[in-house]
Design goal:
InterPro entries: DinB/YfiT-like. The protein is mostly helical. It has one domain. Helix content is 55%, strand content 9%. Strands 1-2 form a two-stranded antiparallel ribbon. It starts with 10 loop residues before the first helix and ends with a helix.
Length: 92
């Protein structure tokens, strides 16, 4: 999306299975907060014209930034639901 300093690796997307690597709730919450702040900063930098430019990734192939962002939002909603269950029933 335009940041050269931020690289997020979602291992479950790459390996196409749950790697069971993210089991520490405190670390996961800290990482989630870092990602939120980083992605918000990137979104705020985008112009209207910029959203129509295309990007190519292994996960999405070639999409406009707005299409890729839509995919990210739907996945985030799914994983947020999972995290809310962890927050409600898990312990640190």
């Amino acid at each position: 999306m335009g940041s050269i300093n931020l690289k997020l690796i979602i291992k479950t997307d790459i390996t196409e299975k749950d790697t069971r690597e993210w089991t520490n709730i405190a670390e996961l919450k800290e990482y989630s907060d870092y990602v939120f702040k980083s992605v918000l900063a990137i979104i705020e930098q985008q112009t209207d014209e910029n959203w129509e430019s295309t990007i190519t990734t292994k996960e999405f192939s070639c999409k406009t930034k707005v299409e890729a962002f839509g995919i990210i939002i739907s996945r985030t909603a799914y994983y947020s639901g999972q995290m809310s269950i962890i927050n409600k029933h898990g312990s640190v």
